[in-house]
Amino acid sequence: MNIGIIGAGAIGLLFGSYLSEADHHITFLVRETSIAKQFYIEKNAQEPQQITSDIVSNIADLKKMDLIVIAVKYHHLTQIEDQLNSLPQHIPLLFIQNGLSHIVFLKNLKQETIMIGSVLHGAAKKNYSTVQHSGIGPTYIGFYKGEWHSINKFVENNNDQFPLILTPNIEQMLVKKAMLNCLINPLTTIARVTNGELIVNHSYKVILRSMYDEMMEAFEEWKERLPWDEVVALCENTGANRSSMLKDFENGRMMELDTIVGAILERAAQRKQTLPILQTFYLLLSEINKEGDSNG
């Protein structure tokens, strides 16, 4: 298939690399083609491997794609809305943003088929052109609207390091990931520690458990879907990783605060529930985010 990827951040490059290995023809759409002539992926501390792909900067170059993956962060989506609506309406779009807010954005698009992905990999940019794959996990894909006759072929054509799973309830997957991100990302950012420190350090573990308990009180139906042991296991399995929010903070970028933490707080408020610890972290990080926004 001819697959376009809008955005060359960590997850965009990760998708491009593994989809290229699955014999798809990959075209990255970036703002400036002069910054990088080629992209690379680093797996298991091995030497970086070149990602076989084309790199373009004009949306018109994606008008003959079989699928387009939108890999920019949520707060950049409004900047490309007109570009997306300029594409042929029959081309399926796959959105792989963190959080929940992008679901509302999708209502404004004209495409006949729109899919949403929930990505559970660990990945980080080493530099502008190289991504490091730091943790293997599934990517769940579900339909927001429409249908795509090639979806089964697309999902089945993957490998053990990049599993794709079609799910009938993609929103539940997004909520679960947002909850996990709410538990890990704000605390690691404020404490400036790796994920593993949240369960190694006694004080951080007490805070983490308190956040978990208040979240389960607000969302009682999630007690079985998201047990405490799963939170601990995620911290253990990604122990050396720095959360995406922490990495954004360290690099002076805007953190994905509203679409993750803000969205969960809003859902709690709709139930007339409060999450005091998470709300406190949200307010603290919102002030820090103003600085990241002013830095571009």
- How much helical structure, as a percent, in the residues? 40-55%
* Rounded radius of gyration (Å): 19 Å
User: What's the architecture of the largest domain in CATH terms?
Assistant: 3-Layer(aba) Sandwich
Biggest β-sheet: strands ordered side by side in the sheet: 5-2-1-6-7-8-11-12
- End-to-end span in angstroms? 35 Å
Query: What is the residue-mean pLDDT, rounded to a whole number?
Result: 93
Count of helical regions:
11
Kindly give the count of domains.
2
Specify the CATH homologous superfamily of the largest domain. NAD(P)-binding Rossmann-like Domain
Q: Please tally the β strands and state the result.
A: 12
Report the top-level CATH class of the largest domain.
Alpha Beta
Which fold name is given in CATH as the topology of the largest domain? Rossmann fold
One letter per element, helices H and strands E, the order comes to EHEEEEEHEHEEEEHEHHHHHHH
Provide the structure class: alpha/beta
Low-confidence stretches at least 5 residues in length (pLDDT < 50)?
none
Summed up:
This protein is of the alpha/beta class. It has helices spanning 10-21, 81-85, 102-105, 151-156, 170-191, 197-200, 202-218, 228-237, 244-250, 258-270, 276-294, and strands at residues 2-6, 25-29, 39-43, 49-51, 54-56, 67-70, 93-95, 114-119, 122-127, 130-135, 139-145, 164-166.
